[in-house]
Specification:
- Strands 1-2 form a two-stranded parallel sheet.
- The protein is built from 5 helices and 2 strands.
- It has one domain.
- It is mainly alpha-helical.
Length: 103
């Protein structure tokens, strides 16, 4: 629900285009080579997600900037606390990791 919530709150942000995908077998939209290649930056919720990308897509892992938000999987879809957490962590990553690369 974290990725779906993030997609919902950031999809209309004009700074970027977003896609969301999960790593779980039952994810509504699973990560794929195509959506990983599409991305300029890949934001993951947990270190385990980054490790999964490294093991399943090693070439993409080496060539893409993957940033971890460190948000545990204990929230419901659009949980108000999750929304605030996502916004705060994303803005921090945007200002410190992504925006400087854009200049």
């Amino acid at each position: 629900m974290r990725s779906l919530t993030a997609h919902e709150i950031f999809k209309s942000d004009t700074r970027f285009d977003v896609q969301s995908a999960g790593t779980a077998i039952d994810a509504q939209n699973r990560i794929s080579k195509e959506n990983l290649e599409w991305a300029d930056y890949i934001l993951v919720m947990e270190r385990a997600h980054r490790n999964k990308i490294r093991s399943e897509y090693p070439k993409i892992y080496e060539s893409k900037r993957i940033l971890c938000m460190y948000i545990e999987d204990n929230y419901d879809y659009k949980d108000p606390y999750l929304i605030e957490l996502l916004k705060g962590k994303f803005e921090f990553l945007w200002k410190t990791e992504i925006e400087p690369d854009q200049k």
